[in-house]
Amino acid sequence: MIDVKHLTKWYGRVLAVDNISFEVAKGSVVGFLGPNGAGKSTTLKIMTCYMPPTRGSVTVDGLDVLSDSLEVRRRIGYMPESVPLYPEMRVGEYLRFRASLRDIPAKEQSAAVQRVGKRCWLSEPEDMTRRRLGDLSRGYKQRVGLAEVLLHDPPVLVLDEPTIGLDPGQIRAMRALITELGEDHTVILSSHILAEVEQTCSQIVIIQGGRLVAQGTPNELRQRVVGQGKVIAEIRGAESKQIAGAAGTLDNAARVDHSDHNGWTRLEVTTRGETDIRGDLYKLAHNNGWELRELRRATGSLEDFFVQVTYEQSMQQAG
């Protein structure tokens, strides 16, 4: 659905996007991640025809963002981080105005406004369509922004920080809505909330310093966290120092940290490489007659991977 090839963007002497390439399959929900200044917003603006690239190309549904700009815009709904609204207009009035700009026939505009108002919680439990945009909270402005991009039911949705300003209940509802939208649309979601991305996205693209540093499913990226493995165990039946000392004698146990939890010794055993020593810990507890109530292998998180790859890239660029 979206094909980015060798995309490069210069702002004078500043290189914002550096030769990145990736694809977004039809019907997928893709998380687009990167620290501040990584080039995310620039890439999204090029993708949505707000600015041209310096080099490279972007196609949406086979249409080039430069030569087929109007057709690309008809296929995209773009919600920027700061939603541009007219504060003196009322919600319903604004949505009907935007519907007319989207070439939605006049006789269909009211139905379209009602449809998106209901889907984005603007009509229930309280009807907000008669409220002035300037009087709305940040969360309601986000809802209006999302409603506007859904008016013409585009096949591609580009959402930049869609949950900013929402309360916890609204954030949960927004995540559910994005997942639902992914059934009928191709969605690109840019967010700083990694838990949000893990719960809603099937693919993730990470950029840093304008360069593509990683892409894959959340599970694939978590498995790529570089570092030593770690096993967590809770054992009782002897003093903590004795249990920790015995665990430290196991082959491939590089380090053992321990603490007391209401009579149980909690072990965090760092292993050499990715060695799995859960079997050895079980045998240790069994042979000594100790009780064992927890034994698991700690896994890397998406946050660990994000910090790792962006830090490594920043070090390479600094060096």
Descriptive report:
- The protein has 319 residues and is α/β, with parallel strands linked by helices.
- Helices cover 36% and strands 29% of the residues.
- It contains 11 helices and 14 strands.
- Strand 9 and strand 10 (211-216) form a beta hairpin.
- The mean pLDDT is 89.
Q: What name does CATH use for the topology of the largest domain?
A: Rossmann fold
State mean pLDDT (0 to 100 scale).
Answer: 89
Distance between the termini: 37 Å
User: In this structure, how is the largest beta sheet organized?
Assistant: 6 strands, mixed
CA-based shape: elongated
CATH class of the largest domain: Alpha Beta
Set out the fold topology.
Elements: E1 2-11, E2 14-24, E3 29-33, H1 40-47, E4 55-60, E5 63-64, H2 69-74, E6 76-79, H3 91-101, H4 106-119, H5 138-150, E7 156-160, H6 168-181, E8 186-190, H7 194-200, E9 203-208, E10 211-216, H8 218-223, E11 230-236, H9 240-248, E12 253-261, E13 264-271, H10 278-287, E14 291-298, H11 302-318
Parallel strand pairs: 3-8, 3-9, 6-7, 7-8
Antiparallel strand pairs: 1-2, 1-4, 4-5, 9-10, 11-13, 11-14, 12-13
Q: Could you name the key traits of this structure?
A:
319 residues; 29% strand; Rossmann fold; four-stranded antiparallel β-sheet; alpha/beta; six-stranded mixed β-sheet; Alpha-Beta Plaits
